[in-house]
Protein 1
Amino acid sequence: MTTPESAAGEGNLSEGPNETAEPDGGVPDGGVPDEVLPEAAARRLGHGAWSSALSVPDLATSLALGFEPAGYVQGFSVRQWRWIGYYGAGFSPAAGMGAMVGPRVGPGEYSEGWRCPHGFVAGEHRVYGYNFEQAWVERSWAEAWGAAYTRMIEEAEALGAHGVIGVTDDMHYLAGTGAAEFSIRGTAVVVPGAPRPSPPFSTFLAGQRLAKLIEAGYAPVGVVAALSSVQMFGYCITRLQLSGSGAGTWSGGAPGVGAIVQVGKAQRAARHLAREHLRRQLGGDALHGATVTEFEQEIGEGDLAVHCTIKGTRVRRFKDFDPLPEPEPVVRLR
Amino acid sequence: MTRHTDLGPGRDPQAGLHQAMAALSAAPPGGRGVTSDLSIDETLLLHSVGWEPVDLVFGVSWWSIPWGAWQWQTGEIAEASSAFAGAFAEAAQQMREECAQAGGSGVVGVEIEMRVAAHHISIELTGTAVRRVDHHQAGFEFISDLSARDFALLTRAGWWPLSLVVGASFVVAPRRTARQWAAQQGQNTELPHLTEALYLAREGAMARMQRAGSDAGADGVIGVRLREGPLGHSARIMQFVAVGTAVHLAAGSHRPIAPTMAVPLDDAERTFEAASLRSSR
């Protein structure tokens, strides 16, 4: 089994299958090699009936398409987890006038600063404001998600599968432990007689949607996901606006009704970063059926952490789009 | 609109699957990958009417509402209504710019998230920029929350989407007098101050949305969705938000689409609740 250490830091979570294709799939003779899987998992996967999370219609469609289920494969990673907490040297967000040095960010990482227009200093007055990318959160998330994904793919490979369809993923907190569980699962499938890609492909799709994808000329390469994290320490104007105290000449010109620029920029940066992190995993292929999830945490008065995940199936065109006939509208009579 | 994937006799879906497996052994194409939140059905439908996805695009704007705006007045809260309009316009403008930057001509399937808090309003737009398959560029053409299916149907009928239009109004109802309060105790009776506040908010929001449609050169606004009722932080504040897609008749006259009647032969799904298994005693 791939350990967290060996899976960590993989820039491309869904490295596309490459030229090391093998002739045919199928469960290897003599069961599943146990050097890559926990012993019990190797024993279970190597014997007995196959398992699958596919619904009956999805199973029927998959069989008609030429997939044979090989087993319900799963990957997990449990991590100590927190979303915020690292500010970089010399940066003290709790301080009012003290935040004179910006957060430390790596080359190419997003950061942006604002400075108080008032020209005075007071204990509770935030003179500087910063938006900055929390690359360490992004890396942790990518490592955890990547570890779970790699372990699922290892199980599929051990079964001699060509790919994993109907993938689902989840992240949830383990109560009272300060830890989060990342899990990814799906149904490993074999395509008898077809070259076996290495590593196996994966897709969130199954059943008729997968059939239509392939019929349309797209091959599923792998599920891809990226998280971005942006921390925002509001400067005085942002704090005044978020607390409703922005109006008045003493606010330094912030309008009572007006754009809260720093928050808007943090929100946009989170989305753009997630999109670009994910685009780097595509290798020029396309991302299909993306789901975008954004959430934020208030981490203090006028301070936010904004996180955004984008997930989807990386697909590769293997034939030209057949022009579809113009769809025929129908009224379903029930 | 439907299109069935033919997996029946006469077709060899496995040939396509083997081709797909072989393609996975090739090197990735390189370059800038397309990103899209469209489903495969939507991608196919869009392609059938001459469009393809280019990139995921966003628009986000937060606007402030000053302290006291909700507390010290009754009637429409102009600060909140204009903050909503400002935030929406800014987010839509960002989305247009991102679309143009990605080489798109329009945005379909825009998801709209709106939040109204005591001191700020946030508008968050997510959609997929699309361009014509023949790469004919006619400048920026539309933003729409219509699905790809609705977009295909709309254009087939001779109409064209222009932009998302929105109207919002927030009204604080006056407090009841002590006499009114006492007279209404213990009765199921209308509360006119709240009904009137709702009507006032409705008129403000609908008028703004329709005016925005006219300003965009639209003949009408379709797919209007409403959000109305009391705001979370006070039962006396009535909100009314109307959002839809402004459309105009591009073909000179409406083209009837004459749908075919279809009788599905699959059984309707039977459902029951556990409660129905209980005896009637």
Note: Chain B has one domain: 33-255.
Protein 2
Amino acid sequence: MTAENPYIPYTATVEETWYETGGDRCIKTFKVVLDDQSVRDSWNHRPGQCAMIGVLGVGESMISISCSPTEGKFLRFSVMKMGKVTQALHQLEPGDKMMVRGPYGNSFPVDDWQGKQILTIGGGVGQAPLRPIVEYVKANRDKYAGLTMIYGARTSGDLCFKGEFEEMSKCDDLSCHLTIDVEEEGWDHNVGFVPQMLLDLNPSSDNTIVITCGPPIMIRFVLENLKKLGFEDEQIYTTLENRMKCGIGKCGRCNAGGMYVCKDGPVFSYAVLKDIPEAFA
Amino acid sequence: MSAMLLNKEKWPDFVGKLTNKKLWAPKLEGDAMRFAPVAEGEMPKLEYGNTRVPPKGALFPQTETMYRFQLGSSEMETPALEEEIVVLGVRPCDARAMTIVEKLFRWDIDDPYYLKRRELVTLVGLACGEPGLNCFCTSVGGDPASTEGLDLLMIDLGDNYLLETVTPKGEALVSEVAEFLTEAEAEAVQLKEKVVAEAAAKIKRSVDHEGIPEGLPGLWDDPLWKSVSASCLGCGTCTYLCPTCHCFDIQDETEGFEARRCRMWDSCMFEEYTLHTSGHNPRPTRRERTRNRINHKYNYYVDKFDVIACVGCGRCINLCPVNIDIVEILRQVKEAL
């Protein structure tokens, strides 16, 4: 990525890696630092943005940046092992090189949300794009009325960022509600689906912004239940994901209706999204 | 803008002079015309209909190296784009398509490859005297002698070509071949107007697009998408041969330690185009893909760039193996509004 050529990636070094979840479709988190000092200094992502990350000789994939800029001069990506590129990424260990282009897309309008209560509703790896919001609000506690996080996965082993939730439950204005689909021995949080947990918690829609991300089926029922709780379309945000190649609005494939997810998105308010015919396709 | 005459007897000299540089012109390959480099001594002929494959590859090659690297190294080398190309015999619709596609390649972030090639390429147009059976340029903003996107336009007046310069690049080219040209008299300009009007009158097909860009969203779930795509094979011919289709894939190719990242034409008519790695596909059948193709050209592009992304060249109609006809689809769309 140079001023002349947006397709050339920056080189970054993997500093730390760890597994969030196990199994064939495991999720591995990479903490990476851009190699070039001037690139590192000028890199300025906002919560909700993505980056094209990859391995030379294999390819690139669009992945959410799962850290907030308030955390420091590094990037974090949580990647599920799925296809060719993500398998190659999973082989990277500390000291290895990762190629990075970005940051891409719009972002959560965090400045407009100041003074509001923030509610995030995530499912599975869908928590990755929500994590920067959680961290951003935690770092700017005085600017927001509070943060409530609902996060669910199939089993406790499928929850990402597990170590980070305990400190949240110690704070008055932050609350974290975890749920898994089926009963498990030793699990002392909720059991049940995310949309139902939302209804049970019955959060007030007053002065609140909701951001949801997860599997399409979860989003569908979360939206239904938010309506039941009295939330307006303008209060609800989500972040979309489509197959992408260029990340800069040229290659054509990520459009949902007339919107390019890579440039017009990935963040959309439900007020906009409900009129995009392909958004929930 | 100047107007000059090139007597057809001087054609070999004219071409000979141009082959000093890299020259592309329509050539017969098998039973189809396509733009290809002209070797010195070779004499391209312009008596043909439009080429099967549009000249879009001059600016947007079917496969293009973005950068090269050695496996294991993060040094990337972009190919130097410096060769100037003259493309001879470009039809006005295809040149117009390049101006339409350029809007996308300039949208917010410049595409360095497309824009650099645009600088390096000189487009010498040829006005259409005998439009094809499925041409409909006149109803989508073009005409058989449109100069949009061209540097120089040639109009066949029988014994002579009339050469009209459009841009400084066109002027420069004309000055290089000045020795073979004569000043065009008023008579020639009159004859040109007659020839052009006759050509336009030969275009029999048209699209009545009024209300279509605004109306398409309302037809999202209309049964017409199922019926117009029922016979589609998903071969992608319509998009590969479309002068305004610009979608691409990016792939890494390796051979030993030598590797390159390249981009190549892709097609929204392919299932894999939008397929997520999870197996989910937002456009799972040819119904959704056909709907996207029409919407992209006649709705999304109009919204974003204020121009229909279809120039009426008729290739997608001529070459569809199952006779899917965009003019007919748009007629049905119009009817359903």
Note: Residues 33 and 74 of chain A are 5 Å apart (CA to CA).
Protein 3
Amino acid sequence: MVLDVNWTVKWLTLCAQAMAEHRVELIELDRAIGDSDHGENMDRGFQAVLDKLSDSPPETPGAALKLTAMTLMSKVGGAAGPLYGTAFLRAATSLGDSPEIAPAAWAGALTAARDGIVARGKAEPGDKTMVDAWTPAAEAASQAAADGSPDALTVLVAAAEAAEAGAVATDPLVARKGRASYLGERSAGHRDPGAASSALILRAAVKAAA
Amino acid sequence: MKKLINDPKSVVDESVQGFGQAHADLVTVSADPTYITRKDAPVSGKVGLVSGGGSGHEPLHAGFVGRGMLDAAVPGAVFTSPTPDQILPATLAVNSGAGVVHIVKNYTGDVLNFETAGELAEAEGVNVRTVLVNDDVAVEDSLYTAGRRGVGGTVLVEKIAGAAAERGDGLDAVASIGERVNSNVRTMGVALTACTVPHAGSPSFDLAEDEIEIGIGIHGEPGRHRIAMENADGITDRLLEPVLTDLRITSGDKVLLFVNGMGGTPLSELYIVYRRAAQVLADRGVAVERSLVGNYITALEMQGCSISVLRLDDELTELWDAPVHTAALRWGV
């Protein structure tokens, strides 16, 4: 499997599909500890990404991610817009102009995305935010990429599984950043919507390679 | 869900269009991206004031665009902050060359989007200052949360900073007046019912018939704790006490008392709350010099209210009294 621009566009298309399919589920998660808008905003944002991709087809994976970043930043709103916008922008920058993403470069892009989210949102692991999905994902991808000569799919799967486990692990946490933090102890017992949507995005990357 | 809407996805656009038509003498509505500007913007030599945030809090912010208050309002989707591609053109449209003050309620999304727009505006040569409003005493622990939220005090910051800009204060002076209002106002709210976000279709939290939620914000997000329903005087005391304690209000202080409705509570009940709050303040030797009662910063159709107390000095009182001509606040004109 080669992670080229076609894979990237397929990944983003599957992200849009996942956001549409899980729109209500994300709204419900956000309804419990936030303000009920996350599923709606992510759905609207990724539908806009699809429009942009067909209007001006990108030539490299990095260009596709940059287009995604600018669109999410201008269409999603809330905290998720700037945070995902920054994540995709940093990932795009780390990939540069290369036509293909090597396994190690994917790990590098996820690490750059995670660092961008941390810099913008000032959240740390354990604060019950999307950082709790991106940090284990970046670490798992880096570890998988360092093990011998892995194929791309192995690294994508490692990241997706770690993100999903990270999202589940936010359930018992008490939120310390974002809107759920106003609930204090009562935020425990609910999954963080941002971590959940992050896991969907990284699972879509696996499906695009399957 | 029963609402006077056509399509959940077009709620904000259609509402803003109607607002523009109803108040065509005061505002201009720009579409794609959506923002509302004062009819005569930019006003020559005047510092521009821009605020914005999620929709669903009407009349905030568009209802406060006009002479003596905001130059532009930027509405996001319901309960979702607006995006930099809206905030930037609004900022540029009201800049006369004297600079622009962004009034931002302290929520992660609003802060991030206004921060980005502010950087972009600076890159285009506009001086931008930001006044962050965080008057909500319900958030007890600022260290382990995103910090106190901007709630009722926002209306007072917009009115008073708007009057300072209108009388010709410079950029730093207008921002500094806004910060002074913010540091002298505290607010606490209560919900008797939840509200329903149009695209979500069901109430934002579940509250039993005999329960109330103390310490709610303005997004239908649940508060710090819920208690059994009490009478109006009891609830008023619960809201007012932490406000007065946090603001260290003492005998001899002069204040503005603001009882704000969340959208679904009748004015008659707001006046019952006002009555009790005024009585408590009088008992403590505090002079209520100015008042505001009504639905000014709401959470859709939520039943409930918030109480804000602003400590006044002569200058803040004079700026509060200055003429204002907007859709939702109008006096002295």
Note: The domain at 5-209 of chain A is CATH 1.25.40.340 (Serine Threonine Protein Phosphatase 5, Tetratricopeptide repeat).
Protein 4
Amino acid sequence: MRGQDMYDVIIIGAGVSGCAIARELSRYEGNFCVLEKSEDVCCGTSKANSGIVHAGHDAKPGSMMAKMNVRGNFLMESLSKELDFPFKRNGSMVLCLEEDKKDKLTALYEQGIVNGVPGLQLLDGKKARELEPNISPDTVAAIYAPSGGIVCPFGLNIALAENACTNGVKFYFHTEVRELDREQDGWSVKTNNGEFQSRFVVNAAGVYADVLHNMVSEEKIHIVQRRGDYMLMDHAVGDYVSHTIFQLPDEKGKGVLVTPTTHGNLMVGPTAIDVEDKEGNQTTQEGLDQIREKAGRMVVNPPLWEVITSFAGLRAHEDGHEFIIGEVKDAPGFVDCAGIESPGLTSAPAIGEYVAGLLQEHFKWKKNPEFTGTRKGILNPGDLSPEERNQLIKENPSYGTIICRCENVTEGEIIDAINRPLGARTLDGIKRRTRAGMGRCQSGFCSPKTMEIMARELEISQTEICKSGPESFILKK
Amino acid sequence: MEKRELTCIGCPMGCTLTVTMQDKEVVSLTGNTCKRGDIYGRKEVTNPTRIVTSTVRVKNGENPVVSVKTAQDIPKDKIWACMEAIHEIQVEAPIQIGQVVLKNVADTGVDLIATKNQRAVESRL
Amino acid sequence: MTQCDLVIIGGGPAGLAAAVAARKQGVEDILILERDGELGGILNQCIHNGFGLHTFSEELTGPEYAARFIEKVQEEAIPYKLHTMVLNITKEKTVTAMNREDGLFDIQAKAIVLAMGCRERPRGALNIPGYRPAGIFSAGTAQRLVNIEGFMPGREVVILGSGDIGLIMARRMTLKGAKVKVVAEVMPYSGGLKRNIVQCLDDYNIPLKLSHTVIDIQGKERLTGVTLAQVDENRRPVPGTEIQYKCDTLLLSVGLIPENELSKSAGIQIGSVTRGPVVNESLETSVEGIFACGNVLHVHDLVDYVSEEASMAGENAAHYIKNKEMYAARKEIPVNTGEGVRYTVPETLDIQRMRSNQTLRFRVGSVYTGAYVSVYLDDKRIQHKKRQVLAPGEMETVILKQEELQKYPKLQKITVRIEEE
């Protein structure tokens, strides 16, 4: 058995939902751990999505999705200050490009009002273009949602995990759940990395949540992987639009959007292509062609020639298109957090609060006296004044060496990313924490240097360094 | 009579040269546009040579390897023997540009020389 | 704030040659800022030979070529700072840089030479579909790993792009014991030198597939294979021509992009074809007193031309520091690109300031055999020279004579074009 104790709660999955729940649970004096099959937090659906904090007009009134979305949106701003991750309330717009679809737009607006989205406005085409000059001249009307925002999806996920870890939640990586057995006072969780015991289990396994659920329940659920392809553009065109631009949603979701990111890039995507493979996150030519075409309808001449990378993520789409959150009826002590697709990222803070609340009702833990609700992210020297920056370099010269020249990431930041709680162990881990390698040269210049720093800090050979998973070695021995 | 086809490397034209040989002697060469093509083609079929460049492992250097080359061109069919010899050796820093790293590499009569300076360091982590 | 007559950004071949030339013209106060740990730039990792035939009339390796210029810099005792990143430059020629020892610092320069070089186009910019496993490198990154760090990036290799770096790396990986299975080139011709095709591919029986590209990348962790397909004249894959290659490494040699983020910070105008600063006959950018040379200005084929161009930039910067007034008044005649010519450097020309023999460099858009390079002053053809072959991979040159141009006081434009006859 791993760990001496019986855990109160084991959370399966270190994505944004799992980590949000872990962080909320860490407020209490319980015994918690997170099991993650990958090498790091934020490795599945949470790493490849739009990074949007949705206003909340899309979900069906009364649904869990609607509730979590609006609440999550509300919580995000204060959370971003407590946990120091990039968030911006840039406002979003839904464009209506055809006269005969105006009533659909109005219906969406009204739904938003029912869902309690603050500040919604209906604009005519002219007003919309005044607000956002590069949108299509075909825009006949638009919804403007001032509460819409953007967040760094890695920043949010990593911040939640680090804070949970600091407050005593244990994380086990490379730990894949193989079997779940109901025992007298809880669950036995068998993994490739040993057996764990827990009173409660939270299933936050993203696209695998149906597999886990179906291990313990007769009421089966089914998750389909809905792949979304994206293209990310260079900073040079990061201000092409200032709001997040949506088109009217269709049966497959909110469709392609055009948005600035919190780090000043421009992003377009996603597609919505259902795939069988739970790891099938490869981009395809059709997918990329589709984005190009759709983005071109929403904004004038989108600057796709500035693309620096394309990628795809898998949304965990449950057949009922609703968040499944709560204790499973025929499996007491097993709490689902399944079907967390868009607006899942937005909802994460609310999901954490809600699931922790459910568990607290059962356990009635005491407050964790050592709980610290704030966390400092990796220092970005670019945010400092020249004087402060010089002081920093004097104290720690590694902040004077730029490693990633595209994103201006210093050696000091990379060392911090490695040595902080749940520190980076892979090149992708460094990239998601510091942005080294995320810029226009896509790690061409910095990866040899980053690897050198990793080898030194972790006391390993460079040939042991992986990009992400355990077989993804960068170099050959 | 044996015919061989070559691409001339003299300029971007890349003329296709046809060389006719008998008993290792060039009988005729066609396809060239200029004199350089003729010279190249004749040498390439009778005595093809290359300068080999690579790296050699360094002991106590600021970098783990240093760049080297054969001081003159060596017969083309000796490239692999030369690479094997390069693979075997290690050279101690400091290293001066032009310094002989290995004498008479692969019995070619040609020395292997360093093409870069490298300082020594106390120890390399 | 520290003052400096001439700040040179970049200590690669361009920056070094510019520094030496400026010193020869009497500029005492020069500072080279280099981001890497040594001078010489990318030449340090180009350990193959073939450099310097024009400059030194002998064949040198990259590090040897660099050493010749580094020695001159040291002989002239030109100061330089290593491990120093320039973060910003302004129109007023304030340079903000940073390193471990000095922290963040500003230098007020009288003139600046931009010599930052270029970067490689990454996979992302090509939008190649598929997974994103480890094992995909730009050729230059792989070159650094092998030649400087002494590592092996992979064992079974496919290379996309037949530019010179791709060809050189095909041979290098082979000599290091890897199996290079194929070099694919999307264009119907190679962008590399003939010599490299023969000595890097043919010598080792590595096939070159023209009009082919990578259309899929397999492998979730480390690369396991790629799919190649033939492309049509619009560079779109032709269905049914797919070929599967098992490999653990994909090297990309698919183009170089001048690194002009700093230039943009000073508001310097950037050309849409070269992606480098738009310059006049003095290699001066749209901001007075800021000059550009080498691969930051336009991507060169031979380093010899970089050195030559950078020397000009260094001399011109020296001249500017001493004779500011002369630079203030610009009467610039545009140099236009006619049929077949993709770009020219410089883009404008001042007849008073031009050299008596002014070099104009350009590249063509496709392969021509037996065509003519023509220069027009307005509608009058003044040059018409037959070339055996013209190829996009090679930089071309025409020389304009000041005394000839002075005969046309009303000259409106100069045009370079390729003519079939």
Note: Chain B has two domains: 2-47, 53-114.
